[in-house]
Design brief:
Blueprint: E1 3-6, E2 9-11, H1 14-38, E3 43-46, E4 52-54, E5 74-76, H2 81-93, E6 101-110, E7 125-136, H3 143-158, E8 164-168, E9 176-186, E10 189-199, E11 206-209
Parallel strand pairs: 3-6
Antiparallel strand pairs: 1-2, 4-5, 6-7, 7-11, 8-9, 9-10, 10-11
Helix pairs in contact: 1-3
Length: about 210
């Protein structure tokens, strides 16, 4: 059980930490297997980004009432994507790799969320496990559809006792051409556990998904 000491802020116990490590290791290994099974040329790069982010890198879709601004230079990062993109650009510019690549990380994000009951609260500080798969825009392979189907199968294997579904998202981000959510039934409601987008905002002529 997680101990709540403030709405949206929790303390994780040893069991929670062990489960987090297990899920990170399992999902990471399975996702790499899925993607390389589609194209063995994919190179994987694991990173971890700082909790602080320069203000100019925060997506303009986040208004200041949605994240924690520290000062005129930095804020607590509301998402992990900017750091993953920045690292991917360095991979290409330094000649370390060519598409297709996957940059992934598990690190903290911070958002101003409304206070709600424990059952429905959204965390103000939480971990995100994110995979950015970057590949040539003119590829003939429909990676997005194939990955979405394979990730659904992965979650079904991980949680065989739960009802799991894959549905089009009802909240399409501005950068997305298509977004698919994976949801798990939790007692009396569907809970989103994964979101996968075909993105169009990587600042070079590539498209990325996840």
């Amino acid at each position: 059980m997680k101990t709540q000491y403030s709405n949206g802020l929790v303390v994780y116990n040893e069991s929670d930490l062990l489960m987090r490590r297990f899920l990170f290791d399992t999902i990471t290994l399975q996702f790499e297997k899925i993607v390389k099974g589609m194209n063995k040329s994919f190179s994987f790069f694991q990173i971890e980004s700082s909790c602080l982010i320069p203000n100019e890198l925060i997506n303009s879709e986040y208004t200041e009432d949605k994240y924690f601004k520290v000062d005129e230079e930095y804020s607590l990062k509301p998402e992990t994507t900017p750091a993953s993109y920045d690292y991917a650009k360095s991979v290409f510019s330094d000649g370390e790799g060519l598409p297709p690549i996957c940059v992934y990380q598990m690190s903290k994000s911070f958002r101003r969320e409304d206070d709600k009951t424990s059952r429905h609260m959204r965390l103000k500080e939480f971990y995100q496990l994110e995979f950015q798969c970057i590949y040539s825009a003119n590829t003939k392979d429909d990676y997005h559809t194939r990955v979405c189907d394979a990730v659904l199968e992965m979650f079904t294997r991980l949680f065989p006792e739960r009802k799991i579904q894959k549905i089009p998202s009802d909240r399409i981000p501005h950068y997305s051409e298509s977004t698919i959510d994976i949801e798990i039934w939790d007692e009396d409601r569907w809970m989103e556990v994964c979101s996968m987008s075909l993105r169009n905002d990587f600042p070079i002529t590539y498209i990325q998904s996840m």
